[in-house]
Amino acid sequence: MSETPAPAATPATTAPATAGATTNPLAGFDRTTSVWGPVTMTAGMAAMLIGPVLMVVFGGYEVSLGTLVAAVVAIALVMGVIWVIEPISYFPILGAGAMYQAFLIGNISTKLLPAAVTAQASIKAKPGTPQAQIAATLAICSAAFIHVAALVLVIAVFGQWLLTIVPADLLAAVTRFVVPAVLGAFLMQNIIGNWKQPKVLLAGLAVGVLVIYGVVPLIPVLAPAAPLFGVVLTVAVVMLTFKAKPADADRA
Q1: N or C end of the chain: smaller count of CB under 10 Å?
Q2: DSSP assignment string, 16-31
């Protein structure tokens, strides 16, 4: 009498390789971001530079290398610290994907960051979590969409109609003073931000007057490098006149 063979043993369910290990729900999102983020940033930089390049190549404008270098160095001396501080301070709140969006769009501290923080607070997501990163990304998308829609409506539609009814004299005055108005607002913003540092404000004012009304008229060849010269001289004056407060131990 033949016996029925016993059924083969069913293999046990394979246990996870690392018990208790957590998986990143945004792994695929991060991989895609790490590829397309640099691509879009490079494309945005190319789009911003193509206009000036075309004006120089085909428009007959000339920009000397010395002027370009002086302008870049002057801006770097003023804004270089922000180039390092902003990415470090924004990353824990925005995450990788939203960081690429924010620096490509601009107006981070005044528009995009508040939108991201508001979206995270509305769903009670803690900064740094996957939920917070997705909320920040979607909030920035919404802010950018509203911004572009407003620009199209106000500028492309309403703006063109407004130009047809504004008197020519008023339009000429606006065109003449719009740049000083923007620079004046930027200047007042910096004055308010450094209001507790009067030495910096006075040094900047004195050096600006000296460079514009003294150095440039006397040495016109230095005119292209006047911004760089003014920034460096202001920093030097502030550093030379700065006196650290003595420690309590020294005063005792």
Answers
A1: N
A2: PSSTTPPP-TTHHHHH
d(CA 2, CA 45): 81
- Residue 244 tokens read as 């650290």
- Compute how many other C-beta atoms are within 10 angstroms of the C-beta atom of residue 245: 7
Instruction: Give, in order, the Cα–Cα distances in Å from 15 to each of 22, 46, 196.
Output: 14, 50, 62
pLDDT at residue 236 tops 60: yes
Residues in the chain: 252
Q: How confident is the model at residue 135 (pLDDT cuts 50, 70, 90)?
A: very high
The type of residue at 105 is I
Residue 130, C-beta contacts closer than 8 angstroms, at least 6 positions apart: 24, 25, 26
DSSP state string for 97-132: HHHHHHHHH--IIIIIHHHHHHHHHHTTPPTTSHHH
Residue 125 sits at φ, ψ, to 5 deg, of: -100, 130
